[in-house]
């Protein structure tokens, strides 16, 4: 069996030990342990098998856009063969290279991510102290079996689910499992059957850690049967699904496929209907043009550019403390409309801090946060350095630090190492801020201790004062418990008697601190007879009340600004925590969090995330504990903590924060939005360019008489040849598009609301831009053709080869202006035009290559072009400039319309 017949927290420890056929003193013998290990298997979580390399490769080719490119390769090869298989098949080879490089980039990024995640692993202790054969021995955690008796001490990691059988002030940090920020004091008493996981004080669980005390516990569950194991099983049922970007690119690929087929049929049919050449060769030529046009309409560079843009974004995010496990997750963060976040360690520092101290009737503020002992005592807005109140404060904090087991040391580089219970560390850090701790440590020697227990709710130490050999008993604990044991109060340097009225006043002070969601601890002392070396609980009476402190886990300094930025970006911030509701609400109020869900369990987190998604939100879920893992997997984007996060949460997440900082999430959101903006720039540019090419062919064939194309005899009556179409496509899909993919932000991406789940990557404004630029590009290109050709709307005196060269060149130069225009759908191309140096380099390369195609003899033969004189170049450039002007005019009207719209509330 793997557990007692009854829930182990509902029966006594002795009954659990008996049910498991174990022994609290001797533990298991080797034969028992070996048999149970063979029966139940190792104490390990079952990991998902690695994805075979072949499946990873195939996954890179499942995108509809990739399928479209693969079809383009096949069609291009057919066209090349149909033309007699002469020369090198440049187009299919180039497209195939793009597809292969895209797949290789995806695989490379996956491997890099796996290496980064592996480097982050900070596993809990792989060993455990158990009692075997009556002796305490150290074994591998994987060898723990049901019935083993664990010997637990401060600093130990708990490696299995156990029922406590003995506890001496044992406190366990359970935040990774329950979300509770405060260590839980463990007891041995049975509990009710319906006791919630976070309230099972007689149980310790795998993945938690002992912060104070010692005890013994019998293992009741191992491996996948532990609470961590149950949550790991939930992960298998949680589906991460496609990201918004993957859905949008999939949609785009399907739409382009349909459009390409329709356009090709129309153009080929038009060519065949208007051409006098009905021979087999003429039909093949028409089909070649149609195939070339189909390939030209497909933005084959988009997929590779998208992957490169995402990969560069991943690198930038890693520099800012976020490791992305899959490329598409980068953009998903930019789509987030809700960020669900844990409290402890994410919004807060996870460093308990004394922020207030009350001595007598005076409350003193203690400044500074966290475990760095930098701060001051402040009274009425001024620094408190001397006088009786300062002396009482030092006395209070010194006594609280003496009644603890915490330690804090400097490493000499402004970094501090701490150990012990977080609240005790808080006392010690506060004392460092106002007093000479080294002098106090040299003065007092601890002789004995009565440890903290949940029943007593206090801890007491016996100290020898080296200055006058006095013996002092110092206690720290719950204010109401400690006050009952006090008969006097220290005030203004005197010990004054306590009456009922004064006790009520002190309790009111404590309640006031608690109402501010501060954890309260009181300190008291008394002198004992000289020569005493031991004390017990019976000595804890007739004490002198020194005062009370208020402790809080403070928010991270930068989180408030980040949440404000989230609100400005239209993102809702929701706190989901296992912590106490009052504590959670205090932090939420300080940081202006939109909603709070406290005391939640793993299935609650799943439900909350699912409900938010059902409302149409793109949900980002952050967390560090095992209890967060199912929700991390289910959310659109799961963000795990790299420092405090458990391995289960890291495995479930899409993004891992190396600094555990909420503000890093907002930086990632900005990065995601900027990446999507860059992708839209590329899509806007590519589709507008390709639309211009398609419309040149379509309108040129349909309106052949208007531009003089009907006068062409003896060859295919089209404004562009197949080789010229492919050259334009290769030129525009490469350098210029890549430069736009890394373009610095022009629009303020964090001032707009997040995109909806169903918002298209090509929205209405972009459609207008694509249509307008495509129409204008085709118009000016055909105008260049008409200016050169005899007949048509404008009489010219050139030939078909020169006219095609004019169309060819005008389209290429027009795309240069289109690249600058595509930087924004709203902001002028002349705003910060020189920020993107790579774009200017791409412009230079594009223009030089086009000049080469027009003027180099061997390229004239390959692309059927002729050199142009300066006048014709000027005409091409002037006509191409109309494209940029059209974009600028449209933006003027767009900005005017935006100014007339009411501001978002």
Description:
With 905 residues, the protein is an alpha+beta fold. It folds into three domains: 8-41 and 125-158 and 161-221, Calcium-transporting ATPase, cytoplasmic transduction domain A (Distorted Sandwich), CATH 2.70.150; 57-112 and 241-323 and 667-900, Calcium-transporting ATPase, transmembrane domain (Up-down Bundle); 353-552, Calcium-transporting ATPase, cytoplasmic domain N. 49% of the residues lie in helices and 17% in strands. Strands 10, 11, 12, 13, 16, 17, 18, 19, 20, 21 and 22 form an eleven-stranded mixed sheet that branches. The model is unreliable at 116-125 (pLDDT under 50). It catalyses: ATP + H2O = ADP + phosphate + H(+). Residues 7-81 form the Cation-transporting P-type ATPase N-terminal domain. Belongs to the cation transport ATPase (P-type) (TC 3.A.3) family. Type IIA subfamily. Keywords: ATP-binding, Cell membrane, Membrane, Metal-binding, Nucleotide-binding, Translocase, Transmembrane, Transmembrane helix.
Number of strands: 27
| Rg (CA only) | 37 Å
CATH class of the largest domain: Mainly Alpha
Characterize the biggest β-sheet.
Answer: 11 strands, mixed
Number of discrete domains: 3
Query: How many helices does DSSP assign?
Result: 29
Instruction: Give the name of the CATH superfamily of the largest domain.
Output: Calcium-transporting ATPase, transmembrane domain
Architecture per CATH nomenclature, i.e. the level-2 architecture of the largest domain: Up-down Bundle
Shape: elongated
> What is the end-to-end distance?
61 Å
Residue-averaged pLDDT: 82
Strand content: 15-25%
């Amino acid at each position: 069996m793997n557990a007692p017949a009854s829930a182990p927290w509902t029966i006594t420890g002795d009954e659990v030990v008996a049910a498991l056929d174990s022994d609290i003193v001797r533990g298991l013998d080797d034969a028992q342990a070996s048999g149970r290990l063979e029966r139940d298997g190792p104490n390990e979580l079952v990991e998902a098998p690695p994805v075979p390399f072949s499946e990873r490769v195939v996954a890179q080719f499942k995108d509809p856009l990739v399928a479209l490119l693969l079809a383009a390769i096949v069609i291009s090869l057919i066209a090349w063969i149909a033309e007699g298989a002469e020369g090198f098949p440049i187009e299919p080879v180039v497209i195939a290279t793009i597809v292969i490089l895209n797949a290789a980039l995806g695989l490379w990024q996956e491997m890099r991510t796996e290496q980064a995640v592996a480097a982050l692993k900070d596993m809990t202790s792989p060993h455990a102290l158990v009692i075997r054969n009556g002796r305490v021995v150290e074994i591998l955690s994987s060898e723990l079996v049901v019935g083993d008796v664990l010997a637990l001490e401060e600093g130990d990691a708990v490696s299995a689910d156990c029922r406590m059988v003995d506890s001496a002030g044992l406190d366990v940090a359970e935040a990774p499992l329950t979300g509770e920020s405060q260590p839980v004091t463990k007891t041995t008493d049975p509990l009710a059957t319906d006791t919630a996981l976070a309230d099972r004080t007689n149980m310790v669980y795998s993945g938690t850690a002992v912060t104070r005390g010692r005890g013994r516990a019998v293992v009741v569950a191992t491996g996948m049967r532990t609470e961590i194991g149950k949550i790991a099983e939930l992960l298998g049922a949680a589906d991460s699904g496609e990201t918004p970007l993957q859905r949008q690119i999939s949609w785009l690929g399907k739409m382009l496929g349909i459009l390409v087929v329709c356009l090709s049929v129309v153009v080929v049919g038009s060519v065949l209907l208007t051409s006098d050449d009905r021979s087999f060769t003429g039909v093949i030529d028409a089909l070649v043009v149609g195939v070339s046009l189909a390939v030209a309409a497909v933005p084959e560079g988009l997929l590779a550019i998208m992957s490169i843009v995402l990969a560069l974004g991943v690198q930038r995010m890693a520099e800012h403390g976020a490791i992305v496990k899959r490329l598409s997750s980068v953009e998903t963060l930019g789509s987030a409309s809700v960020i669900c976040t844990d409290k402890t360690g994410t919004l807060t520092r996870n460093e308990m801090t004394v922020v207030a101290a009350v001595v007598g009737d005076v409350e003193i503020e203690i400044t500074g946060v966290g475990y760095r002992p930098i701060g001051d005592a402040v009274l009425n807005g001024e620094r408190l350095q001397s006088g009786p109140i300062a002396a009482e404060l030092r006395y209070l904090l010194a006594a609280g630090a003496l009644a603890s087991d915490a330690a804090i040391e400097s490493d000499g580089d402004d970094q501090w190492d701490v150990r012990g219970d977080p609240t005790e560390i808080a006392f010690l850090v506060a004392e460092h801020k106002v007093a000479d701790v080294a002098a106090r440590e040299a003065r007092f020697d601890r002789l004995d201790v009565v440890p903290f227990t949940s029943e007593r709710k206090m801890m007491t130490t016996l100290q020898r004062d080296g200055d006058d050999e006095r013996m002092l008993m110092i206690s720290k604990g719950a204010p109401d418990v400690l006050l009952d044991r006090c008969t006097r109060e220290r005030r203004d340097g005197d010990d004054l008697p306590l009456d009922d009225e004064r006790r009520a006043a002190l309790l009111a002070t404590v309640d006031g601190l608690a109402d501010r969601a501060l954890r309260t601890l009181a300190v008291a002392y008394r002198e004992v007879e000289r020569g005493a070396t031991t004390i017990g609980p019976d000595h804890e009476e007739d004490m002198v009340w020194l005062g009370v402190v208020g402790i809080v886990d403070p928010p991270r300094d930068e989180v408030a600004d980040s949440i404000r930025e989230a609100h400005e970006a239209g993102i809702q911030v929701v706190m989901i925590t296992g912590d106490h509701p009052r504590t959670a609400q205090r932090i939420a109020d300080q940081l202006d969090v939109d909603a709070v869900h406290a005391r939640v369990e793993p299935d609650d987190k799943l439900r909350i995330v699912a409900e938010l998604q059902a409302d149409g939100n793109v949900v980002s879920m952050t967390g560090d504990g095992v209890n967060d893992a199912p929700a991390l997997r289910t959310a659109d984007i799961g963000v795990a903590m790299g420092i405090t996060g458990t391995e289960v949460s890291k495995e479930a997440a899409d993004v891992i924060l190396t600094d555990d900082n909420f503000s890093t999430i907002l930086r990632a959101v900005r990065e995601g939005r900027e990446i999507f903006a860059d992708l839209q720039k590329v899509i806007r540019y590519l589709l507008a360019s390709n639309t211009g090419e398609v419309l040149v062919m379509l309108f040129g064939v349909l309106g052949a008489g208007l531009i003089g194309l009907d006068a062409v005899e003896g060859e295919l009556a089209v404004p562009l040849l197949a080789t010229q179409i492919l050259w334009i496509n290769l030129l525009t899909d490469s350098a210029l598009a890549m430069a736009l993919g890394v373009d610095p932000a022009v629009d303020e991406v964090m001032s707009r609301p997040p995109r909806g789940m169903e918002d298209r990557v090509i929205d209405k404004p972009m459609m207008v831009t694509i249509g307008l630029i495509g129409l204008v590009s085709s118009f000016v290109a055909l105008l260049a053709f008409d200016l050169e050709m005899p007949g048509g709307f404008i009489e010219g005196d050139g030939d078909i080869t020169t006219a095609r060269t004019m169309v060819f060149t005008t389209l290429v130069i027009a795309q240069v202006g289109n690249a600058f225009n595509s930087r924004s759908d709203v902001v002028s191309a002349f705003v910060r035009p020189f920020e993107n140096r790579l774009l200017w380099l791409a412009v230079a390369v594009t223009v030089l290559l086009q000049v080469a195609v027009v003027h180099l003899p061997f390229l004239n033969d390959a692309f059927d072009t002729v050199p142009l004189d300066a006048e014709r170049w000027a005409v091409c450039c002037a006509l191409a400039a109309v494209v940029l002007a059209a974009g600028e005019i449209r933006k003027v009207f767009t900005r005017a319309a935006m100014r007339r719209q009411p501001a978002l509330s």
